[in-house]
Amino acid sequence: MDLNANSTIFVVLNTTLSVKNSLKHILITLFLLCHAGVLAFSGTIGFMPIVSNYSQSSYDGGLQNWSVTQSASGQLFFGNQKGVLSFDGYRWNCHTLPSHSIARSVLADGDRIYVVDPQKGDIAFFI
């Protein structure tokens, strides 16, 4: 009887040790995989993008921006409540439409920018 009891305890202890070792191996593997993924991903990017937030007062436009497009020269255009906002990376300009309508949709085709306000039926373009 005593022999069976001791062998049962040994089996339980052995199982507990193997579970601890397995958990240890799993955690180490997960740790290495996570770090390998981060290192591989950061090596392909090679840079950290610069993100800037602009308030309404900095671009002197309306509160709502409806759409965005980029011209062939790299300039950004935004359909805005007050018209079309343009941004060259340094300066903001607000271009009001002749009918003072909202520029809800903008599209760049080369360096020509098409602007649409479907509520008033206005279609315009900037060169």
Report Rg: 31 Å
DSSP summary, beta strand count: 7
Mean pLDDT: 75
- Secondary structural class: alpha+beta
The neighbouring-strand order within the major sheet is 1-2-3-4
- SSE succession: HHEEEEEEE
Q: Which word captures the global form?
A: elongated
Largest sheet: 4 strands, antiparallel
Number of helices: 2
Q: How helical, in percent, are the residues? A: 25-40%
Give the low-pLDDT segments: 5-14
Which percent range describes the beta-strand content?
A: 25-35%
Distance between the termini: 98 Å
Write up what this structure looks like:
The chain has 127 residues and is of the alpha+beta class. The strands form two sheets. The chain has a four-stranded antiparallel sheet, with no helix packed on it. A three-stranded antiparallel sheet has the order 5-6-7, with no helix packed on it. The protein contains two helices and seven strands. The chain is elongated.
Name some characteristics of this structure.
single chain, 127 residues, alpha+beta, four-stranded antiparallel β-sheet, three-stranded antiparallel β-sheet
Summarize the helices and strands and which ones pair or pack:
Blueprint: H1 2-45, H2 56-59, E1 65-70, E2 76-80, E3 83-87, E4 92-95, E5 105-109, E6 112-117, E7 122-126
In short, what is this structure?
This protein has 127 residues and is α+β, with helices and mostly antiparallel strands. It is built from two helices and seven strands; from the N terminus they run ααβββββββ. Strands 1-2-3-4 form a four-stranded antiparallel β-sheet, with no helix packed on it.
